[in-house]
Amino acid sequence: MRHKPLKxxxxxxxxxxxxxxxxxxxxxxxxxxxxxxxxxxxxxxxTSGEKTEYYYERGDVTLxxxxxxxCPACIxxxxxxxxxxxxxxSRGFKILMVSExxxxxxxxxxxxxxxxxxxxxxxNYDLMNALGNPRVIPVxxxxxxxxxxxxxxxxxxxxxxxxxxxxxxxxx
Length: 172
Known about the structure:
Elements: H1 3-29, E1 43-46, E2 51-53, H2 54-57, E3 61-67, H3 72-76, H4 78-88, E4 93-99, H5 104-113, E5 119-122, H6 125-130, E6 139-143, E7 149-154, H7 159-171
Parallel strand pairs: 3-4, 4-5
Antiparallel strand pairs: 1-2, 1-5, 3-6, 6-7
Helix pairs in contact: 4-7
């Protein structure tokens, strides 16, 4: 009889662990708290410390990239981003990078070390809310001239797919 309460307790604990495991998995399966459909204007500081707004930095087609100097995948996608910038910038394509580094000084060093020719801004809570608070990096938002999100790329950018998406968005 004494073992019955222990068995019951073990079953209850197992059920709690399974439920918590399911909830954690469900939470991690979607990297966004809320998936945005459009990009609302947001303000941020550039790596030189000047305040700017998304509306000043956007192009006919804009790729907003969340990145950080400590992220190996973010560093690995730099050559692809540079190629895309070089190939499409004359057609109204812009990249706006959002640094998730701890401070502006680190973000500025990262921009310089990687020779980024595009604007890099430092993250803030309003900006992250405008982007749906993703819990992963790198993540890139391909945005058309009406600020509608055409596509979101979570993880390392697939160059061929990104190139095709930019081409398609520039035509429309």
